[in-house]
Design goal:
InterPro entries: CutC-like_dom_sf. The protein is α/β, with parallel strands linked by helices and 210 residues long. It contains nine helices and eight strands.
């Protein structure tokens, strides 16, 4: 089974390394239409999701090639804003603010249902706002507790190689990397193909054991 590898990019110059290394999906934090358009052209058939703060912001980016959006819609009680998320029903979307909610377990229930919010393809989480260094144990326990959660979970925010086999055993099938695939972990460095490839090989090996 092929596990999904998502790579965060900030501009089109990050894309060649991500694709050469074997990324299955890209997430861009750029919101400028020209940058997103160039990133999507460079990505070709590999889907690009773009982080947005509203559906109105998303529309022009979808028009220039983005395959989906990444959102962190929360209500005034720091819970998943179900109404805002439901407005994305016709667009594939990722949820990115699970770790910022007041009660993550309750927020998971709002996302996965039943009924599951339409269009939702993944939930990025580190298990803790401070990252997986603090949240890994909680994240693993959450994935183990519910197959519906594991099926949507995209571990992100400090993922380490040693986390992967244990998360895969719970049913997690998608993983996200960012600084891990930039030389020195620097945001100023472009995504490097060899670093992406090391994660691709790791995921492939884990997938072969399923």
């Amino acid at each position: 089974m092929r596990l999904l590898l998502e790579v965060t990019v900030t501009q089109e110059r990050d894309v060649p390394g991500a694709l050469e290394g074997g990324a299955d999906r890209l997430l861009t934090t750029a919101t400028e239409t020209a940058v997103v358009s160039a990133t999507c052209r460079e990505a070709g058939d590999v889907p690009v999701f773009v982080a947005v703060d509203s559906l109105e912001t998303a529309r022009p980016l979808l028009d220039v090639g983005a395959a989906g959006v990444a959102v962190g819609f929360l209500d005034e009680d720091l819970e998943v804003d179900v109404a805002a998320c439901a407005s994305l029903a016709e667009v594939p979307w990722l949820f990115t603010a699970l770790d910022d909610t007041l009660d993550p377990r309750r927020s998971w229930r709002r996302l996965v249902g039943p009924p599951r919010l339409p269009g939702l393809v993944g939930v990025r989480s580190a298990g803790d706002p401070r990252g997986m260094g603090e949240g890994y144990d909680a994240l693993l326990a959450t994935a183990e507790s519910d197959p519906a959660v594991a099926a949507l979970l995209v571990p992100a925010g400090g993922l380490l190689a040693e986390h992967v086999p244990w998360l895969v055993r719970t049913g997690v099938r998608a993983f996200a990397v960012d600084a891990q695939v930039r030389p020195g972990g620097s945001a100023r460095a472009y995504v490097a193909a060899d670093l992406v490839r090391s994660w691709r090989l790791l995921l492939d090996a884990a997938g072969e054991r399923l």
